[in-house]
Amino acid sequence: MKKFLKMLLLVFFLLVIYIYTLVISNIPNKLVIFEGESINMRTLIGMNIKSKESTIETASTNGNKISNQVGKTTLEVSFLNTLKLKDVDVNVLPRTTVIPVGNIAGVKLYTSGVLVVGMSEIEGNDSKKYKPYENTGIKEGDTIIKIDDKQISTTEDLIKTVNMSNGQDIKVKFIHQEETKECSMTPVKTNKSEYKLGLWVRDSAAGVGTVTFYEPTSKTFGALGHGITDIDTNELINISSGEFITTRILNITKGEVGEPGRIQGTVENQQNIGTISKNSRFGIYGKVNNLASLNIDKSKELEVALRDEIKTGKATILCSLDNQTPKEYEIEIQKIYKENNYDNKSMQIKVTEQRLIDKTGGIIQGMSGAPILQNGKFIGAVTHVLVNNPKEGYAVFGDIMLKQSKNVE
User: Fold this and answer.
1) CB 85 within 8 A of CB 47
2) Does the pTM of the predicted model rise above 0.85?
3) Which of 177, 225, 401, 406 is most buried, by the most CB atoms less than 10 A from its CB?
4) Was domain 121-197 assigned CATH 2.60.40.10?
5) Taking residues 238-253, what's their average pLDDT?
6) Which fold does the domain 99-108+204-405 belong to in CATH?
């Protein structure tokens, strides 16, 4: 019995250590917040968070801090105020205004390296089947960036470099889940005297979405509210560059239960808006080079709302569905997930305006990024539709999108 109790206590002790380790690892090393914004960090009994400087209040005991003034500071996370666990660097930004846009635009992204989207056996010139990629660690969704120290930027680069190997072993450098790895592969000669690796790759992606906001001070834009993923691997595309182009809407397919609607557009004879330099899970971001192409009213700058200012109830989305000036349509904010910093489902929303329902059935593909306004402030952007109810979906907080835009080059 004593041995059992000791074992039980040991298991309990190890479980507590594991839980504390998880909580500590989930506390970020860096934070970007706005002046007056709450910091929500989960803590456990005995864990304390205090500021090393005076720019952050530390009055609360549950890990919630409120920024007082613009600047940088450091929060120290400790156990019982004695054992230091980690530091959190905090950058407090001034309250910011943006111009909500709501225009549909075309997107073209170029990958950093080439994206592996599939694998298949190769028949060699000896009629045997080969898998050069087998046991190399390369998976679908990985990005090949170098072969034998030669930079690989396009599919043409890959084909040319592999053919130049003449069947000799090559060193392949690739990125797997943000970690750079290297392996050796032996290209196979086919009956057409070409050398192949058995990998299907892609170096670009395209689509349409909605421009969410323009930030005049930095001349940056945010769009979509979610990242662009590869259609085959469902992985976020690691980009080297991209283009944003005005789009003319050709057709709108209404959404139905089980079948999301979509906007079809063309970029033929359209204008360049700017360059894309960032593809994150919270949207795409870049610089506006041709402000006139957005056709926005510079006088309609709105302050970006803090999460505590967002309320359930009525709001509006701004979007253009007829190649004209964007219009506002009423929606309802049903739920708000204030502590969610991990994905782009910050709010649950429902389309309530019959004009929009009659035209689109609700939320459709291409409306991702449509800005959401409430009480004279920009609060977020549409990101997802619920497949079983096209009138409902999700939105991301505006403060998350603006913070993402702050490190656009």
Assistant:
1) yes
2) no
3) 225
4) no
5) 86
6) Thrombin, subunit H (2.40.10)
